[in-house]
Specification:
Length: about 200
């Protein structure tokens, strides 16, 4: 029996699993819009990002705070361009992982998305793409005001799926998020790459 066949449901992270990570060029392009050095922008981008993902700060406040910490000021057009560039940088879907998810759905498994992401990205994904189309349940951090690896965000996803923790497999690229799931009894697999992980999930054991 393949590892994935032992479970009734599979939860997918979004960034780094269903979609590729931002590229260096993506980050550099946003740094250019903000008028900041690329390295400094990268560090500032991830500092306090979880507050934005949690839905506790607006996009405008997030970008203005980033600029303030970087010693620059942004006008309204720069902020709009940064929001757009940021969203676009996370829309590079991994078709191979989506094919895998669709095969699970067709086999009768429940599949869900559990992701830290800001409202701007989530709403574009829902309204303008098919990025969430295969999934019966979504748990997005900005909607539940909780982020991985906090217990509450996993509990929301488990409740939405209606399955027991031991019935679920969770795929995420960050080990701290895997550990958060495991503390609740969910089997986690760190998603290092599609080519490495998917064959392991499908291998007979």
């Amino acid at each position: 029996m393949a590892l994935v066949d032992r479970y009734s449901g599979v939860i997918f992270d979004y960034g780094g699993v269903l979609a590729f990570h931002q590229t260096v060029a993506d980050s550099a392009g946003m740094a250019n819009i903000a008028g900041l050095p690329a390295r400094a922008f990268h560090d500032l981008y991830w500092t306090d990002r979880l507050a934005y993902d949690r839905g506790l700060t607006t996009a405008e406040d997030y970008w203005n705070d980033l600029a303030r910490r970087g010693g620059v000021a942004l006008d309204s057009q720069q902020i709009l361009r940064l929001i757009e560039a940021d969203v676009q940088s996370w829309l590079k879907f991994d078709s191979g992982v989506y094919d895998f998810a669709e095969s699970l759905r067709q086999s009768g498994k429940q599949i869900a998305v559990l992701s830290n992401m800001p409202r701007e990205l989530g709403e574009v994904l829902k309204a303008k793409t098919n990025g969430f189309a295969p999934f019966a349940h979504l748990t997005l951090s900005y909607e539940v005001k909780s982020v991985k690896p906090e217990p509450a965000i996993y509990e929301h996803c488990l409740a939405g799926m209606g399955l027991r923790p031991e019935e679920i497999l969770f795929l995420d690229d960050r080990i701290e998020n895997i550990r958060g799931a495991e503390r609740l009894g969910v089997r986690g697999v760190q998603f290092t790459s599609r080519d490495e992980v998917l064959p392991k999930l499908m291998a007979e054991t």
